[in-house]
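A reminder from the course coordinator: this example appears on the midterm review sheet, so study it carefully.

Given structure:
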């Protein structure tokens, strides 16, 4: 009788319980757990991130070594940089380049070897310079007497010096080649221009 009642094709509570048990058993047999899988993915990502950081450091070091071999810094440029640093003083103010005729100037038709015009500027001082094949000339504004040292190459002890008059004008037959800078000594401060290559 019980067997016949169970086989009458109608759903029974015992059938639901058996189905749930079967599903749980299937999950256990497959060893699948959603939480475990997500935790595993997180751990794997952490490992990959660590590997990427290590790879980036190795790549950076490899590129640095390759650059040192394939494109080394010229000895003359390195020496110039060392000398420029040696000339640096905490009491010296930097005059920034605000105009360069090579960059901002308008070409003049028919002009051969035109002078290079440069302007350096601080909050209180402006220096206009003209570099020609015959030397340097320029003016300091506001007008004042200034002692100007022309820095170029390895001449650290006694660089060539120009003197600006009471109108701020100066000139000299100094043929500047390679990197150069001007160090201006006023009554109030010492100002140094940026280094430029002629």
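Designed residues:
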């Amino acid at each position: 009788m019980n067997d016949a009642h169970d086989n009458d094709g109608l759903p029974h509570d015992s059938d639901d319980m058996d189905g749930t048990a079967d599903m749980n058993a299937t999950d256990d047999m497959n060893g699948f757990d959603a939480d475990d899988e997500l935790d595993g993915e997180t751990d794997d990502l952490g490992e990959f991130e660590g590997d990427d950081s290590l790879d980036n450091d190795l790549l950076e070091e490899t590129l640095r070594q390759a650059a040192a071999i394939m494109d080394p810094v010229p000895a003359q440029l390195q020496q110039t940089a060392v000398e420029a640093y040696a000339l640096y003083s905490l009491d010296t103010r930097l005059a920034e380049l605000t105009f360069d005729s090579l960059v901002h100037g308008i070409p003049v038709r028919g002009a051969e070897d035109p002078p290079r015009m440069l302007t350096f500027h601080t909050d209180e001082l402006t220096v206009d310079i003209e570099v020609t094949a015959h030397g340097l000339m320029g003016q300091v504004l506001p007008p004042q007497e200034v002692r100007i040292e022309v820095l170029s190459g390895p001449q650290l002890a006694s660089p060539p010096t120009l003197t600006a008059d009471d109108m701020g004008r100066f000139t000299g037959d100094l043929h500047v080649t390679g990197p150069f800078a001007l160090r201006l000594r006023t009554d109030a401060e010492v100002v140094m221009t940026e280094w430029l290559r002629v």
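Confidence is low (pLDDT under 50) at residues 25-29. The CA atoms of residues 66 and 85 lie 27 Å apart.
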